[in-house]
Amino acid sequence: MSDTKKAVEQEEISLKGRTILVVNTGWKEKRFTLQRLKKLGLRTVVLNREKNWADSYVDHWIIVDTGNHTASLQAVKSFISSHPEIVIGGVITFWEDDVLLAAKIVDRFHFVGISYNIAKNVRNKFLFRSFCEANHLPAPKHQLLKTDEDVKQIQSTLAFPVVIKPAYGACSEFVVRVDEPKDLPQYVQLVRQGVNASVDSSTTDGAASSLADGTDIFVEEYLDGDEVDIDILVQNGKIKFSSISDNFDKKKDIFFIDRGQAVPSSLPTETQESLLFMAEEVLEKLGIQNGCIHMEAMAMKKGPVPIEVNLRMGGDYVYSYTKDAWGVDLIEESVKIAFGIYISPMRLTKPKRYMIGWDIHPDRSGILVESSVDEDLLKRPYLRELDIHREIGDPILVPPQGHSYIGWVTVSGHNMLDAQDNLKTTLDAIHFSVVPLDPESSLGKTSRTSRLSEAVLNKELLLKKTHVERLKRVSFKDQRSLRVGLAYDLSAGAYPVYRMEDVHACHDALVAHGYAVVFLDFTVPGSAIMSLRRQDIDLVVNVSRSAKSQIAIASLCQLLDVPYTGPSQSTLTYCLDKMTMRKMLAFHNIPLPAWDYLRSADDILDEEFTYPVIMKSSQTNVPRGVDESALIFSEAELRQKASVLIAETHHAVVIEEFVQGDEYDVCIFGNRPDDYRVLPLARYRFQSKGDLRKAFFSNQSREPGKQSHIHVERPPKKLSTRLEALLSEIALDTYRLLECRGYGRVVLRIDAEGNPYVLEVNPSPALRKDSPFIEVAKLVGMSFSEVLEEVIWLALEEFRSSQR
Q1: pLDDT surpassing 70 at residue 236
Q2: DSSP letters along 44-101, please?
Q3: Is the model's pLDDT at 50 over the cut of 50?
Q4: Counting beta carbons within 10 angstroms of the beta carbon of residue 238, is it exposed (0 to 12), middle (13 to 18) or buried (19 or more)?
Q5: pLDDT digit string (tens) for 254-309?
Q6: Which has the higher per-residue pLDDT, 332 or 250?
Q7: How far apart are CA 222 and CA 218, in angstroms?
Q8: Is residue 92 a contact partner of residue 335, using CB atoms and an 8 Å limit?
Q9: Phi, psi (5° rounding) for residue 554?
Q10: From its phi and psi, is residue 643 left (phi > 0), alpha (psi between -120 and 50) or beta?
């Protein structure tokens, strides 16, 4: 065995069993990064918002909002403290929007890498240009855009054409060239709208997510030259590897659509040498000692100009074409640098192959309806990589709506002309079709003065339309691919109070079945609303027990067109108003105990009650959350207690005759009469021994250890078929009349003569492991998680029906 081969094997072995901290998995397009880490024998600890598609490649998760750097640093610290057996040797990220967080982790835990003080001047493109000017490096003239006055000033002070771009952008998202001063205001407005929309709502591409770091935009003079990418490995301040790739056949339109890169560069040797000298000077002056760097630059007649310095490996096909052209594994070498493992300088002059990496772009925005490749394509020797990551039904956005692409491909050749011919043959074997969004049908007769005026609106319409189409195709089997928002409210206002452990039980049950779950804490409504808007949530599971929050969550989901579990806002509103609900049921001849209401203690009672009666507030979402003192034995007592309750709640009170007898729960699944399913009944028998205050569910009877006088039967023993059918029929009629959907529970009582009466309706029963609904579902073999999945499926069914 040669010494060279031994050295290579020794380097391979040195990575096995080591642990690397990876910040953010990224989208599925980045799966090759984690696949490679796994093949290298590394143990991976991943810092991410949630468990996701990468679970099979990850050894340990640290789940935290990576947008919150303080929380992320604390989460890493806690993980290290609680896992002393795991020694994290370094940190790495392949994701642009977490470059700053990775830098903070380097500083806090003394890893090898780039410090935050350096990263902040590089990540912000405007600050990077200012840095270049201050350090005598070439930079285009530039100006930050804050106000309309800035726009007017630029129109007269900068030479046109100019380029508008976000300070924290990635790829070419929201970058636009403006050729004439008169056009500047409308393009500035376009970029501002696009940047704000991408921060406030979900997008289909990773580029826009980087804007969470900031939304500043600036303008700079347009540079007309040869654009190149420079991929660099730097260790201990020395460049160990560098590769220049030409921006191959870049589309020269105003939106800078990236087509592809060709490597090695075809630029003259002296031009390439000047580019590398410039790159080395930039890294030295920035103080970058260790890392994998992806730099973008312009080769101008007057000399090279740096455009961007990305403090992570280049995206998409950069890894693939670098490995094929030069035999250099950027992922492996990046990890070695992060671990402080010495890598030898690689002075490579002759490539193994001539390579082209190419992004597969459509010509128009729309919905992907066809995607296929010829059968023999994968057998062609010059095809090195093919990654089609868009699926049928996905939205595809081209400028000005966005910068989507269908996938990417790398091809090789014996020389660059051969590689270009192979690329053409390859692209001819890849077939796709995009159906465009029709602005006329979507926007009606709205006046539009230019394609820019409708760009952002068309984008939102397209994303909404494709999201709906995707949800329409989700089967019961595949629904576990959904990203679910778990909405709850732990504030006062519900009885019994929903506990955080109940929320975590729902979360854990869903995650165990593969769902991605995001917490939506409506205890702090503003934060929950922003999270719902930003986190690309497919469906909301509404587990709040607060009447106010239940209605707010349903209303918000309806407004944002997001599917959600449980009833509509209107059903919740009139079910949670005991007066409105009883009026509706009485109108439709649903049997109710004799009842009336008082808006003030002096109101006239229309009913001649037989005492005792039960008094409840008219506004509550808890069917039986009443005190023992709610049982009243005389009109004088009624008016005295009504006065107190009305003053406390500022709502009317409902009075109904007390029905002595057994109480029944009828739990129901379904959205419409033809799919209603009644679960086994539950019966509650009260052993009151003459004390009627013990003969109904009160707050006191719900306290631990206070239920000994209540005998629960699930299912009821010796219940006649006739009575079971009658109770079920009344409950189903009630459920239908109140337009309940998904699931619900109707509470009834039977008097001494065998007459049934509806007491309450809960259109959104608690989803707790020990709740009455879950307990009866167990009788038909449904586990807690299966109930949750059934509720989710019924919410999807209702959403699909509403979109027809």
Answers
A1: yes
A2: EEEEESS--TTGGG-SEEEE--TT-HHHHHHHHHHHHHH-TT--EEEEE---GGGHHH
A3: yes
A4: exposed
A5: 877 777 899 999 999 999 999 999 999 999 999 999 999 999 999 999 999 999 99
A6: 332
A7: 12
A8: yes
A9: -60, -45
A10: alpha
Element (H, E) at 294: strand 291-300
Q: Which long-range contacts (CB under 8 A, 24 or more apart) does 338-342 make?
A: 338/20, 338/89, 338/90, 338/91, 338/92, 338/111, 338/112, 338/113, 338/290, 339/15, 339/18, 339/20, 339/89, 339/90, 339/112, 340/89, 340/90, 340/112, 341/11, 341/14, 341/15, 342/235
Task: State how far the alpha carbon of 278 is from the alpha carbons of 295, 304, 622, in Å.
Answer: 11, 7, 70
Enter the tokens of residue 477. Answer: 């089997």
In 3-state terms, what secondary structure has residue 319? helix
* H or E segment to which residue 615 belongs: strand 613-617
DSSP one-letter string for 9-29: HHHHHHHTT-EEEEE---SGG
* 525-534 vs 184-200: helix crossing angle, rounded to 10: 110
* Average of per-residue pLDDT across 58-75: 94
- Integer Cα distance of 559 and 556 in angstroms: 5
Is the pLDDT assigned to residue 671 strictly greater than 90?
yes
Six-digit token string for 214: 């900031």
> Burial level of 347, CB count in 10 A (0-12/13-18/19+)?
exposed
- Identify the pLDDT of residue 173: 75
Alpha helical stretches, state H, 635-716? 635-649
Strand arrangement, sheet containing 162-166: 142-145, 217-221, 162-166, 176-178
Which one, of 268, 180, 179, 171, lies nearest residue 229 by Cα?
171
In whole angstroms, what is the distance from residue 681 CA to residue 731 CA?
A: 11
Q: What is the DSSP string of 301-318?
A: TTEEEEEEEESS---TTH
Is the distance from CB of 744 to CB of 762 less than 8 angstroms? yes
Sort strands 539-542 and 483-488 into parallel, antiparallel or unpaired.
parallel
The Cα–Cα gap between 468 and 477 comes to: 18
For residues 625 and 775, give the distance between their C-alpha atoms in angstroms, rounded to a whole number: 19
Is residue 621 scored above 80 in pLDDT?
Answer: no
Helix H or strand E encompassing 558:
helix 547-560
| pLDDT, tens digit (0-9, with 9 covering 90-100), for 167-193 | 887 667 778 899 999 988 888 887 887
Phi, psi angle pair for 151, to nearest 5° = -60, -45
CA atoms of 595 and 222, how far apart (whole Å): 77
Partners of 20 in beta bridges: 44, 90
> Phi and psi for 638 in degrees, rounded to 5?
-60, -50
Nearest to 523 by CA among 496, 487, 554: 487
Question: Are the CB atoms for 623 and 760 separated by under 8 Å?
Answer: yes
The predicted structure's pLDDT at residue 206: 43
- Give the residue among 742, 784, 731 at the shortest CA–CA distance from 566: 742
Q: What is the pTM of this model?
A: 0.65
Angle in degrees, 0-180, between the axes of helices 116-123 and 99-109, rounded to the nearest 10: 170
Is the pLDDT at 374 greater than 90? The verdict is yes
φ and ψ at residue 345, rounded to 5 degrees: -60, 140
Rounded Cα distance, 323 and 47, in Å: 27
Instruction: State whether residue 114 is helix, strand or coil.
Output: coil
- In the chain the domains, ranked by start, together with CATH numbers, are 16-111 (3.40.50.20), 120-361 (3.30.470.20), 573-763 (3.30.470.20)
Is residue 627 classed as helix, strand or coil in its secondary structure?
coil
